[in-house]
Amino acid sequence: MKAYRIARKPDGPWLNMTPPIRGGVYRPTDTSTDNSDCDDEESSLASSSSSCGDRSSSPSDSTSVTSDCTTVSVDSLVEKVQDEAIIRRRIPSKIVPNHHPTNIAATPSLTRDEYTELAIQQEINDCIKEYPSVDPAVQQDIVRKYRVLHQRVQDEGFYDCPYLEYGKEMARYTTLLVASMTALHFGWYMTSAVFLGLFWHQIMFSAHDAGHGAITHNFKIDTLIGLFVADFCCGLSMGWWKSSHNVHHLITNHPEHDPDIQNVPIFATCPSFFKSIKSSYYDNFVFLWDATAEFLVPYQHYTYYPIMGVARFNLYLLSWLHVLSRKSSSLGGSKAWWIRPTEIVFMICFWFIFGYCLLWRALPTWTIRVAFVLVSHFVTMPLHVQITLSHWGMSTSDLGESESFPQRQLRTTMDVDCPAWLDFIHGGLQFQAVHHLFPRVPRHNLRRLQVLVREFCKETNIPYAILSFADGNRKVLGRLEEVGEQVRFLVTCQKYMAETGESGLH
Questions:
Q1: Quick check: is 494 in a domain?
Q2: Residue 22 lies in a domain
Q3: What pairing do the DSSP bridges indicate for beta strands 277-279 and 285-287?
Q4: For residue 52, what are the contacts with CB-CB under 8 A and spacing of at least 6?
Q5: In whole angstroms, what is the distance from residue 436 CA to residue 431 CA?
Q6: How far is CA 359 from the centre of its chain?
């Protein structure tokens, strides 16, 4: 890196000074017009208020919408709205989408992009009110207290793996698999499918632990455990999961960066997707907001559970796409070169055992084969619900680069409250907020660690989100319904605009 070093950072915390040109979209300008500020890079660097593509790093400042070499402040958009209630998070609850066009008041109109920016900005405003200030001094104090907490986590042995608990896990996994094979032997095919699905559901919790290096804390050993569990036992690529999941932990719930919430056109968890998001994870692939999304998203709170029931099929596809992609092959030049061929061999073994030996040879008819596949995969639905439960109902706003790691994790993640005897069903995923703060802590230690995290939240004034499983599901469904209502409203206004030439967004 010495060849690229241009200076030394001064001592003390680094305050992010985002250049005004960052993120700008530039096009050739007409030299006859007075757009010198947009052409002058030095002027752009010197002044954030007159530059092209300006986007303030502080969320408390006005967010801007950039088009060519002009910037439009969100504040100016707000002034166009006479009734401020329409930019509340539940916009359609104030405005009836089916309202007859002739009864709409003649007030200043908003375009689709303006409406989206207002909805995004309102969510940012809500977060600013609810959470500690993103002022660097405040956030540095949170970071300091987080480091003190982390030292306590180390000193009190929370990283030590309770291997006896994994012995109990192995006994449960073995019991479920033996029950499935026994039922298969006696011709109880659907019973066998149920136990096989339960086996997949339970054993993937250990793959999650291994993926985080939380079992032995040795890269090679934990990787081998993860590959055996995920690829060989379940047919899912551990490499794909780690590639996706690591990004999810770094920039949780960010629409442009977190692949876990990039599910358009089937699901949209925030208004940001109305603008057609370009994914940084999927190599700038654009999740296009089109007629399909406008048709499906309004019903997403109805399709949520059925799609979660068949979500495993999508994971098979993503797994094979990963092991055959450049992302996986790029490991070939590293010390981890052995991961890709091991994954391919293990996944082929899974499909030979499950696809050929079990489905084709052991089951008598096509009807039973199809039913066996559907039942066994549908039984894993609680795992997919559990994965989405702790994030889809939480904030997706970007409060700027000055927000600390612990605050962002607690703002975008929710814990699920349940009695200790039910922990084996949730597999540690009910402690997602605690897990996101300390990803390598073994899941059997998270319940004890939750006590310290509660104390940390109380000390820093960061709200700690925890709901029961039922309330958490209601929160997620409410969020999906809310975004769906916003889409219905947008579609109604687009139809009105096409008929009259005017916007119905007022």
A1: no
A2: no
A3: antiparallel
A4: 21, 24, 26, 37, 38, 44, 66, 68, 69, 70, 71
A5: 9
A6: 34
Contact (CB, 8 A) for 481 and 301? yes
Burial of residue 3 (CB within 10 Å: 0-12, 13-18, 19+) is exposed
Contact 418, 390 (CB under 8 A): no
Q: What is the pLDDT of residues 173-209, one digit of tens each?
A: 999 999 999 999 999 999 999 999 999 999 999 999 9
For 384-394, what is each residue's pLDDT tens digit?
999 999 999 99
Joined tokens for residue 59: 């969320």
Q: Does 354 fall in a domain?
A: yes
Q: Give per-residue burial for 354-375: e unless 16+ CB within 10 Å, then b.
A: beeebbeebbeeeebbeebbeb
Specify if 417 maps to a domain.
yes
Q: What is the DSSP secondary-structure string of 284-350?
A: TEEE---HHHHHHGGGHHHHHHHHHHTHHHHHHHHHHHHHTSHHHHGGGGSTTTTHHHHHHHHHHHH
Number of domains in the chain: 1
3-state secondary structure of 36: helix
